[in-house]
Amino acid sequence: MISGHVFIATSLDGYISRKDGGIDWLLSRGDPTEDLGYESFIESMDGIVMGRGTYEKVTSFETWPYTKPVVVLSQSLSQSSLPDNLRGKVRLMNLSPKDVMNLLTSEGWSKVYVDGGQVIQSFLRDDLIDDIVITVLPVLIGSGRTLFGSLNADVPVRHMRTTCFPSGLVQSVYKLK
Ligand SMILES: NC(=O)c1ccc[n+]([C@@H]2O[C@H](COP(=O)([O-])OP(=O)(O)OC[C@H]3O[C@@H](n4cnc5c(N)ncnc54)[C@H](OP(=O)(O)O)[C@@H]3O)[C@@H](O)[C@H]2O)c1
Predict the structure, then answer these.
(1) Would you say residue 29 has pLDDT above 90?
(2) How far does residue 76's CA lie from ligand 1's centre (Å)?
């Protein structure tokens, strides 16, 4: 069975970015040498499914940070809008979360890193997320884009562990299945 996994950081007040998508507060906080487990997490994934919002932010970075295949969910972007350097690395899809997971299953994927606030919310609504790793930064940013949103029904989660890092980051792991 294919499974969806979330590894994400939020401000203490629960935002994943500022309203304009800014993540300066995230990039400049904490001790960059601290091992938060991201490398081993992403190494265990077959690839990443992200929303257009996250894709657009990542393409503003100097270099493309992923070595795993990336699927971008969008109704407004088309494959032809991809820059040359991302051809073969990124696929654009306009599919529902369930259809994306079915397609990726047929391609042999079993573990999917699901990223982007709206996309995570839609995968949660369709019961496609197995676990969530949330790293909370010790900063309040007051407003922004949220990690969680409306649901069709309550989603019970099991708290697995919480780790406090010397820099003040607090990371919690929750299982949904
Ligand atoms: N703090 C962190 O660790 C972290 C992690 C990831 C991202 N971020 C930040 O979060 C921001 C982006 O998050 P976001 O919540 O705005 O957006 P997002 O989930 O990355 O992208 C949302 C967009 O994806 C498209 N989409 C396609 N299928 C969808 C589906 N099934 N469900 C939802 N959206 C779908 C829609 O774009 P179309 O209009 O093209 O259809 C929608 O507007 C960026 O600033 C990024 O840097 C932070």
Answers:
(1) no
(2) 12
Q: What is this structure's pTM?
A: 0.98
Give distance in angstroms: CA of 50 to centre of ligand 1.
7
- Dump pLDDT digits (tens) for 56-113: 999 999 999 999 999 999 999 998 999 999 999 999 999 999 999 999 999 999 999 9
12 C-beta neighbours (distance < 10 Å), count: 13
Q: From the CB of 146, is ligand 1 less than 6 Å away? A: no
Q: How confident is the model at residue 123 (pLDDT cuts 50, 70, 90)?
A: very high
Cβ 4 under 6 angstroms from ligand 1? no
d(CA 17, CA 65): 18
CA distances from 82 to 15, 37, 66 (A): 28, 30, 15
With 0-12 CB in 10 A as exposed, 13-18 as middle and 19+ as buried, what is 28? exposed
Domains within the chain, CATH numbers bracketed: 3-175 (3.40.430.10)
